[in-house]
Amino acid sequence: MSVVETKALVKRFGDVVAVNSIDLRIEEGEFLVLLGPSGSGKTSLLRMVAGLEKPSDGQILIGGKDVTFMPPRARNLSMVFQSYALYPHMNVFRNISFPLKAEGLPYEERKKKVEWAASIFGIEHLLHRKPRQLSGGQRQRVALARAVVREPGVFLLDEPLSNLDAQLRATARDEIKQFQRRIGTTTIYVTHDQVEAMGMGDRIAVMHLGNMHQLGTPQELYREPADTFVATFLGSPPMNLVKKDSCIIGFHPEHFLPEDVLHPETATFSFAFEVTRVEYLGADRFLYGMVQGAEGPTRIISKVPSLVTLNFEAGRKYTFVVQESDLKYFDHASGKRIPPLPFTTVEPTAQAVVS
Fold first, then answer.
1. For a surface tag, which of 85, 191, 203, 237 has the fewest beta carbons within 10 Å of its beta carbon?
2. Whether the Cβ atoms of residue 2 and residue 153 lie closer than 8 Å to each other
């Protein structure tokens, strides 16, 4: 296990700043997720840690050693790519053992290590098959076993589940997390999928346009987003944002409920919510609709437990409320979190219905 640090790390491609002065410290055994949309800089950051890209500025340390300009083979790490990068002409055994053979290990030692790595992912019975004979999930396990077999100090995973279907992704997430917990290797995982990030990361670094917007646990980022980008990038569905005259207010769909559920005397903010669509998802109903903001109608979502037996119809207005403790406030210009404002600066009266 190794601590990984980046200090004021920068990557430029011509005039484009792909990574903008990122400071990170990933602790021994930690599972850190780099989360962001396409073009956020997360893969460029990972590739610099791996030694596949040279930084334009800044420093990278692994295990306290400056590796900024060292080649990948000198960094004691393994990387799993989105494509898995398996050799099609080699069977599973030879694919997994390839990095060990490149290091000059004797065959018997290689064999023991391959069997150990294969047993971790339950693919012992596949060692004689070629990649074309494997399912997507099996190929993913082979790629992970090949990364594990060298027993590196750091794992780097670049969107390793993006080629799997939704059901298999959920299973693979659990397998990777359990495996990482079992062997305790420091892991950096890149994804654009916030569900993956929330479900797997000990901490998440949210990136956008080369900048790190927030670093924290999944709970911290969800409950206390640093800005409107984080607020709307995390959560399924994400936080609702409504522009008012003095600020932007935010609240999660599960906190935006009918007044019959959150009684008016316990709520602080009421809306006339025009429902446009109702989506039934078993344990919950998602209500899509419109409320009035400072700049006109605003689309928002309510997540109502199915245990709430009230009926809702598209095309009708209902009074929905949010408790004061569940409101977040953001600056109009910067989008950054600001302290709670006195309620009278947001609405004339505490129980006023926005119409």
1. 85
2. yes
